Amino acid sequence: MYGKGGIGKSTTSSNLTCRLASKGYHILQIGCDPKHDSTRNLLAGSTQPTVLNVMKEKPPSEIDLDDLIMTAPCGADCIESGGPEPGIGCAGRGIITAMNELKRLGLNKSDYDVVLYDVLGDVVCGGFAVPLRKDYSNVVYLVTSGEFMAVYAANNILRGILNHSPDVPRVGGIILNCRGMEDEDDLVRRFSEAVGIPVVCRVPRDPHFAMSEKEGRTVIDMFPESEPAIQYNALMDNVIGQIEGDAPRYLSNPLTDEELDLLLKGKPVRSDKGQCIRSIRIKPSDGEACAARSAAMSLSGIKDLAVVIHGPRACGYNMCNIRDVHFLGDVKVNPDMDLTYTDNMLCTDMVDADSIFGGADKLNGMLERLCSEGRRYIAIITACIPGIIGDDVSACIRNIKSKYPDVTILDVRTDGNLTGSAFNGTRMAREAIMSLIDDYPEKERGLVNVISSSGMNSGLDRRRIISLLDSLGYGLNSILFNRCTIDEIRRAGRAEFNIPASKRDLSPEYRQMYEDHGMVISDRLLPCGFIESVVWLRAFENDSNKDSVEKYIESCTARYQDVVKRTSKTLDGKRIYLIGWIGRPMDWMVDALKDSGAIVVKAAMSGPITGDPLPSGRHDEVPKSSASTTNDILADLEELKPDLILGTVRAANRLNIRNGPLPKNTISFEASCDLLEYAADLIRAPIESSWKRGCCR
Predict the structure, then answer these.
(1) Which of 210, 286, 296, 396 is most deeply packed, by most CB within 10 A?
(2) How many CB atoms lie within 10 A of CB 365?
(3) Ramachandran sector of residue 351 (left: φ over 0; alpha: ψ -120 to 50; beta: rest)
(4) Is 569 a catalytic residue?
(5) Is 122 a residue of the active site?
């Protein structure tokens, strides 16, 4: 029995159950509504324990079916699934959990002649649609009146049936529970004709209902000769016909929104719509991570910030695992990396029951523990489930702040992917952490922040930044927002201006965010490579620092020329294939390789974000590959047979070509020096180590 809330499903169900039981049928009625009143009139007004409440109060090993089933005076068995407290948790998920629990406990539907599900149908979400599935029910009846919302809900239920059973007749008929409205019969008749499903029972508005419900009894039991009782007898005959296979069932053929609008306006609607065919368009993935994961990645590098993932353990594990993979990837390509590891991500470990009853208790417990341990800064990142069920994170924060007023808690309400994908998660995390920046009306002249989305990943990077800034007469204030501390973030407002490390930090959204906090953003990214570093320094050159800049460039040029001379003995004439990643320009790499005498045979770009691998225009003679998939790149490599592949491509080892990952972008002139020494080392190394050959044998 499906229909909108308050339409009379429970009244219809309990009267039908009572009548079938009186005819000797063994029947089970399952109420699937959070207000758990479906079986009240069968049980003489008593309220029975619900499946979900029993699950909440007892461990699984102590629950059995006797805790959940009550037998009515008429002989019918009764179960109520129950639901969460109003405003907390997900009632639809509660239905799924209750049905699974009944299965676990061994409820055997074949022990009954009829199992009747009384289901709320205002919105047929995945949970409330469970009884629509063919492994639960054979026949669906729609309870409606002549009210707009009742007809709308009935049509919506037909859409739900269509999703589960597009080609199987499942609908037994429409039950009209009259409200006494003008033209009520006419509207329901026209709806019935339009969807091709007959009205099998018309229950009049009758004072006997109020009288019987006051006594906690059914109309058919207390007033067996009343008009409603006569109608319920007719409904019973239809159900018996379904049991015996004599009564027809109908395909679900819902109206479109436009047709439903015509129906309600009294205009004609086609009654011969024919077979409905579903057309489901699946939106292709944009290949990005969810907002929650990206937010967690953005904040996990702040050393003294505890990052709490409020969600299931699988979400927390995934985010920690991705963070670890990135960290180990940085170690692989950067031997000078600072190996200090920040293990500051935690998870509230929400389980299935929390999605029904709410996860606020677990979040409160986690916050309480962190605060009692002395943590002063905490960020809460919400996964999908808290967003769907509506956990009151704000109330949790207020509760903890009342006990620990000196603790700072950042509320990053990403709700998994409900607020968007990776970019939005990073933006939300950045907004939250930037709210901690202290206000400095007077900026300190010559003091600079560096903004890095991925973080300067080594002490070596920091030293190179300081060296560049020192030649200009500038000082480094903070490197934001990775591998830094909250205090470094707080004092970021002191800096005269800020230098971004990547194009992402020059996007309009980020720029506006920085400017809202009084931060001045330079249009010039940190330089990577010899030519870029010279151009960058010249851009900041002025009368006061001209001499120091000139001396610094001369010193770096001498160092670079020395590296070129040494590595050219190995690299001269070697053919090198470059594979970039996520739109990262490689002009500076080609500059250095050409200076050493190497030949760049092709430059390709792979990953979810492609683009021109050589955007400077300095290397038009280098072929650019349009290949973006592994197979395309492998075909390129088989044809060109380079001496060295710089970049990551799976299965490259089967080509018997020397291969190394693209080195990390580092800072200044030294990036070019690092690249040449790295490439020369790869060329000198054997293609396959002797220990590998021994293992393979």
Answers:
(1) 296
(2) 12
(3) beta
(4) no
(5) yes
What pLDDT sits at residue 30? 95
Residues 6 or more apart whose Cβ sits within 8 Å of residue 473: 446, 544, 545, 548
pTM comes to 0.72
According to the model, what pLDDT value does residue 339 have? 55
| CA distance linking residue 116 with residue 139, whole number of Å | 10
Check 9, 574, 602, 664 and give the catalytic one: 9
Which residues does the chain have with pLDDT short of 50?
A: 273-287, 690-697
Torsion sign across C-alpha atoms 36, 97, 157, 415: positive
Q: Could you say which of 3.40.50.2000, 3.20.20.70, 3.30.110.170, 3.40.50.1980 is the CATH number of the domain covering 291-434?
A: 3.40.50.1980
Provide the residue ranges of all domains of the chain, joining segments of one domain with +. Answer: 2-264, 291-434, 445-526, 565-692
Q: Give the per-residue SS3 of 486-510.
A: HHHHHHHHHEEEEEECCHHHHCHHH
| Domain 2-264 indexed as CATH 3.40.50.300 | yes
Active site residue 9: yes
* Active site annotation includes 35: yes
Q: Which residues pair with 558 in a beta bridge?
A: none
Per the residue annotation, which of 37, 67, 122, 338 is the catalytic one? 122
The dihedral through the CA atoms of 622, 625, 628, 631 has a sign that is: negative
Q: Rounded to a whole number, what is the distance in angstroms from the first to the last CA of the chain?
A: 68
Residue 152, helix vs strand vs coil: helix
* Cα–Cα distance measured from residue 579 to residue 605, given in angstroms and rounded to the nearest whole number: 6
Q: For a pLDDT cut of 70, what percent of the chain falls above it? A: 89
CATH superfamily of 445-526: Nitrogenase molybdenum iron protein domain (3.40.50.1980)
The C-alpha atoms of residue 551 and residue 359 are separated, in whole angstroms, by 62
Asked if 276 and 166 touch (Cβ cutoff 8 Å), the reply is: yes
